[in-house]
User: Fold this.
Amino acid sequence: MPDPTLTILGHVRSSLKDRDSAPKSGAEGAPEAWIELDAAYAPALLGLEVGNRILVVTWLHQGDRSVLQCHPRAERHRPLRGVFATRSPDRPNPIGLHEVTLLEIAAPARLRVHPLEAIDGTPVVDVKNVD
Assistant:
């Protein structure tokens, strides 16, 4: 079996600048953000339309890959759980899944989306249409 390799397609551009300012999920007041993809991926956007629900798959680059258990939502009064039972960004493979609405498509390969809780600079590894 080949060794899996992720390709960074682009980055999130957001008003959220650090983990402490980011909501735990998009539904908790996350702002609009831009997904800026490398222009080479512009042909891959064919068929996406404003209003589509899409999944943005990110690499949570500030995640701690050594964490195997955590208190859900970082609330210390809650009992420890394995990270696979949480949405913690700290996990062996810190992959983020964000369901958002596509608000705008701009040249060459920029997508304005809402709501997105990923912080500015977060690498984007895939975009998938939900609709």
Summary: The mean pLDDT is 94.
